[in-house]
Amino acid sequence: MARIPINIATGSLQKPEMIVGIDLGTTNSLVAIIHPESKQPVALKEHDSSSLVPSIIHFDANGNITVGESARALLETDPQHTIFSAKRLMGKNYDDLKAHADFFTYRVIDSNEDSLVKVQVGEKFYSPIELSSFILKELKHRAEHILKTPVTKAVVTVPAYFNDTQRQATRDAGKLAGLDVLRIVNEPTAASLAYGMGLDPSEEKTIAVYDLGGGTFDISLLHISNGIFEVLSTHGNTYLGGDDIDRTIVQHWMQQLNVSAASLSDNHQKSQSLRLLAERAKKQLSSQEQFSATWEGSRVQLTAIELQQLITPLIEETLKSCKQALQDAGLTADQIDTVVMVGGSTRIPAIKQAVSNFFGKPVNDSVNPDEVVALGAAIQADILAGNSQRLLLLDVTPLSLGIETMGGLMDVLIPRNSKIPCGAARQYTTHQDGQSDMRITVFQGERDLVKDNRKLASFSLRGIPGMPAGFAKVEVSFTINADGILSVKAKELRSGVAQEIEVKPQYGISSEEIEKMLLESITHAKSDMVERALVEARTEGEQILSVTEKFIQKNTTLLSAEELTATAAAMQALQLSLTMADKDLIQRKTEELNEVTRPFAERVMDVAVKGALQGKSI
Ligand code: ADP
Ligand code: MG
Description:
single chain, alpha+beta, Nucleotidyltransferase, domain 5, Substrate Binding Domain Of DNAk, Chain A, domain 1, 4 domains, 6-stranded mixed beta sheet, 5-stranded mixed beta sheet, 36% helix, elongated, binds adenosine-5'-diphosphate
């Protein structure tokens, strides 16, 4: 049952703050929400304008910034001050872009402080994060204008192949724009969600998402089970898309009209109008058989058949990527249950046909391909807002998370593949009398010894009041929020002393590294187990030794001379065994010492001994 807040002053329903879904695209961006009444995802738009906002930013001489359609109009007339495709620069350094230097009509430079690129516009330098934030700010304003309510929270989509740096950059861009990015979602995952996939927890299937946008092509293979999406493989070309189709049409017409490239190169107006005409022709031919218009007094025409011939090489290239993605995932085309079409360019019938032929099944194209990603982001946002009945868990922890315990052992609190958000807590104790500090070191990985895992963070719980060893009760709790941020809290329960830190477990780790760590954990499983057992035996032996020593010191007068000699001998034997890598020997000697001390320990039972034998020490 949902509670509905009512504003007492006005009697109207208090609108809960809306979390929007944002597709921050290379060519176009847009915002979608779940409609409060229909409960269906809708893209936001003003009256009869388009929901798409071109991802283009223009800087005028006075420092005014415009984003969208009006900036797009200046692309050809003011290229140095008009920035397009900022998304391609996210998290990139100049080396990454060198091969495509010609692509950018504005100045992309390497800044010295960090190796990430900046864009120079006039006297100013902008990072790709700032540029993206201008687009997000525009989207936020539009959404606020349409919804008549503040918009401060969003789910933003990124390509599945984006690495952690690029994801973090997207998150930072959101922050700069005044948006709290609650979740970064993969574009193919969002598109699948918009088709209703993954919402039924019992559903298990393999999906191919074919995304051909304005300047990029991606194919992603996903697997869903238990409402969790896993990316099996991705492939594509970050410099292939609808723009290339427009360019091909322009070249075709120039050839027909005998117009040389040189004659157009200094006439921006002319070349822009021809390019726009080509895009119009392309779009029209997605639903009609022919196109004709006049340009500079000449007739230009194109038929759907001609267009299909012109773009055959481009289609072939995308299918090559599909083949590669299948191969990488170890799948064949007939193992794909569903094919989803994404991106404006998939409206072209010849492309739908080719993809459908390739996978041997009809493609899913019923949801608007320009909007499908944003609509899926809105569904995810609605789930995060808690409005959806269907609880959908999209993310899992890729590696186990835990802390270091005595002897350098990994004590896992949250195992790998746990669905997030999640949490876990465990109690630990001190191993020294009067110990006032306890160091908590957080690790990620599957190996038994922390030295083989990845250290994420470390902090100290200070100010534990003086207590005998084993008395303090330190509860360490891990919480991972929906955003993948881990909070670690340590609290001494008797005194209430507490300390907390936040860690970003996935930041800076690539999927290859994760894979490598998992593989290593499998190959080392046996030796790790042996080593863990040895460390555990040693730790226990050391504890017994220290407890016994204290016990003897305190109670010498209560023990007989024979008892003292026997104890000393057993302690010495245990001490010696600790230097050897023989778990069984250590355990035997520990047991022998216990045998010797048991009778008098029972006699003079000390709580401290009992306490020290309980709980693990850090
Ligand atoms: P991105 O995801 O890269 O931001 P979009 O998915 O918005 O890009 O796709 C934009 C591309 O789709 C442009 O090249 C545009 O010309 C093309 N496009 C839009 N509508 C159609 C259509 N009806 N037929 C063919 N191409 C189209
Ligand atoms: Mg897109």
